[in-house]
Specification:
Blueprint (H helix, E strand, L loop, with lengths): L2 E5 L3 H9 L5 E9 L2 E9 L7 E6 L10 H9 L2 E6 L26 H11 L1 H13 L2 H4 L3 E6 L1 H10 L7 E5 L6 H10 L3 E6 L6 H11 L4 E5 L8 H4 L3 H10 L4
Parallel strand pairs: 4-5, 4-6, 6-7, 7-8, 8-9
Antiparallel strand pairs: 1-2, 2-3, 3-5
Helix pairs in contact: 4-6
Length: 253
């Protein structure tokens, strides 16, 4: 199967045990996506009844470690989360790895660059596989779904939603490849969206965020002082993850 799920350990046995305890816990999860083994960490809250489930997606050349503090803070606020490495990133490298040293501009004549871009452009396939895994988790799939995308995954998450389902809340951290079609889908989704970027960013970001502001009546936009792309914003804004969690909890259905 192109989309199935695997576990490292006995997930269900762990889940029932963990939800009876009064502490946050983590379990490593593996999800098969077209032969790629996606490695993630599922963090459960201290409460026995989570209020929501959050999928935390990294940027290009990033990995799930960027969300450690956010996952722990979410657990303390009653939100379960899965931070996961998509194909070619972090520990999800069984079929190869993204090379951050390669030219970031597409060159169809360079196989290495084409391969790098194929990893990015296939992010939606991984998110679809994750959603299929989520549908098999009866205690998680019934919860309100929050998706946090970062850089390229901000676009990939909405492409995946067209095949699976829209989340209940979206946050996009500097989604540089966010398309016009995706902008049109913001209000149509009828769910809260938050877009965040640094004031100092690549030259096209002001125009992109202007297009988002003009194309949506409901999206919220934060432009933070200083620099930091996507999940690097956490390094430059130490309390940003808390602000994001506050924003999420205020909008949970």
């Amino acid at each position: 199967m192109n989309s199935s799920w695997l576990y490292r350990g006995f997930f269900f046995a762990w889940f029932f045990t963990a939800t009876m305890s009064a502490r946050a816990d983590n379990v490593q999860v593996e999800i098969d996506s077209e032969g790629w083994i996606l490695v993630g960490d599922l963090t459960t809250p201290e409460t026995t009844s989570p209020s929501a489930f959050a999928l935390l997606l990294h940027k290009a050349a990033g990995d799930r470690e960027a969300y450690v503090a956010m996952a722990e803070a979410m657990a303390a606020r009653g939100i379960a989360s899965l931070r996961i490495d998509l194909r070619g990133h972090g520990d999800s490298n069984n079929l190869g790895a993204f090379d951050p040293t390669i030219n970031r501009y597409l060159d169809e004549d360079d196989p290495a660059i084409v391969r790098n871009f194929s990893l990015i452009r296939s992010g939606d396939r991984d998110i679809v596989s994750i959603m299929q895994w989520l549908d098999e988790q009866p205690r998680l799939t019934i919860l309100p779904l929050v998706v946090v995308g970062s850089s390229y995954t901000g676009q990939e998450m909405i492409e995946a939603a067209a095949e699976t389902r829209f989340a209940d809340i979206y946050i996009a951290l500097a989604p540089g490849s966010f398309s016009g079609e995706s902008i049109a889908a913001i209000d149509a989704s009828e769910v809260p969206w938050l877009f965040v970027r640094a004031e100092v960013e690549l030259p096209f970001f002001p125009g992109l965020f202007t297009a988002i502001r003009e194309g949506s009546e409901t999206a919220e936009i934060w432009v933070l002082p200083g620099e930091g792309h996507a999940t690097d914003l956490f390094d430059h804004n130490p309390n940003l993850h808390i602000r994001l969690i506050d924003w999420i909890t205020d909008r949970l259905p």
